[in-house]
Amino acid sequence: MFSGKCTSSVRLDGKTTIITGANTGIGKVTAKQFYTLGAKVILACRNVGKAEQAISDIMAEVKDGGLGQLVVEELDLASFVSIKRCAKRILQNEKQIHVLVNNAGVMTCPKGKTQDGFETQFGVNHLGHFLFTSLLLPRIRNSTPARIINVSSMAHARGSINFEDINSDKNYSAIAAYSQSKLANVLFSKELARKLEGTRVHVYSLHPGIVNTELARTVDQVYFPGTWLLGRVILFPWVKTPEQGAQTTLHCSIDEKAGEETGLYYSDCKVKEPSASAKDPELAKKLWVKSMEMVGLNDYDMFNCSENTLPEPLKNV
C-alpha cells in the first residue's frame, strides 16, 4: 500500500520538542526520530515506567553521533491537575519550546469520564490537549519559528460537535464520541492557527493512517472479544506500521515547505481537504469558546500574557 514519507533532512539541534503519548506507537517513532535529529525530546506520558522503557529502547536502537536528549514528564490527559503540574514543570525547566506534538489519545473506549467529569474521548483527545497547549503557548510564542501538531484522524469526517450533549450523557456511542473528538482536533487547529496568524507559530492537524498500534486496545470491550483482531484482518491491506504512521507527523514537524503553511490538514505527508464541518470558521470559534469554559480558562489571555513568567492558572498549582 502507498504510504507518504517525510523526506526532509532538517536537523533539530538545540530545539526543544514535546510529544504526548510518546511511549508507544507513532509517538515513540516520532520521539526516536527527533532524538536522532539532535532535539531535546520530552516524552509526556501517563505511564512513566513505560516512557522510561521507551527511552531505553530508543537509546539501544540509535547509536549514531549527533544525538539529542530524552526526558520523561508525567502527563495524564484525563486530569486537569496532572496537565497543569506537567505544564508547570516544563515551563520551569525549559526556556523555549519549538515543537509540540499532541499525539496521545484514546479510541472507541467504553463510556467513562475523566477525573474532571468529561466524556473520556472528548476529555482526553480534545480538552486535555487544548488545556496543555494553552498553558504552554506563551513560551511557544517566544520560541519562533515554532510548530504545534495535533494528531487527528479521518474519523473527523463522520463527526459533529453536539453542543447540546457534548459529554454524551444522553446517548453514548463510542464511535460517535471518538469522531467528535477528532473533529474537535481539526477545528482547534484551524482556530488556533487563525489566532496565531503572523506570529511564526504554525499549527497543523493530520490523519496518520490506519496504524497498527495500541490505540484501539479497548475496542473489544465496547463490541465483542476479537473485534480488533477481526478489524486488522479486514483492513490489513491499508494498515500501516508505526514507522509509516509517523511520517505525516514528522512532515508537519520538520519539513521546510510545511513550515510555510499553517491551519491545514494533512494525510500521507500532503495537504488534504478535511470535511465541510472541519472548515466551518463559525463552528471553530464556537468550539473554542466552549472549550475555554470547560477547561476553566475564561480569564486567561494566552496570546498577550508574558512569555517568561508562569501563566496565571499555574501560579497556585
Properties at a glance:
317 residues, alpha/beta, 8-stranded mixed sheet, two-stranded parallel sheet, globular
SSE diagram, text form:
Layout: E1 16-20, H1 25-36, E2 40-45, H2 48-61, E3 69-74, H3 80-93, E4 99-102, H4 120-141, E5 146-151, H5 174-195, E6 201-207, E7 210-211, H6 219-222, H7 227-234, E8 239-240, H8 242-245, H9 247-254, E9 264-267, E10 270-271, H10 281-294
Parallel strand pairs: 1-2, 1-4, 2-3, 4-5, 5-6, 6-9, 7-8
Antiparallel strand pairs: 9-10
Q: How would you characterize this protein structure?
A:
The protein has 317 residues and is α/β, with parallel strands linked by helices. Helix 3 (80-93) runs parallel beside helix 4 (120-141), helix 4 packs parallel to helix 5 (174-195) and helix 5 crosses helix 10. It is built from ten helices and ten strands. The strands form two sheets. Strands 3-2-1-4-5-6-9-10 form an eight-stranded mixed sheet, with helices on both faces. Strands 7-8 form a two-stranded parallel sheet. 38% of the residues lie in helices and 14% in strands. The model has no long low-confidence stretch (mean pLDDT 92).
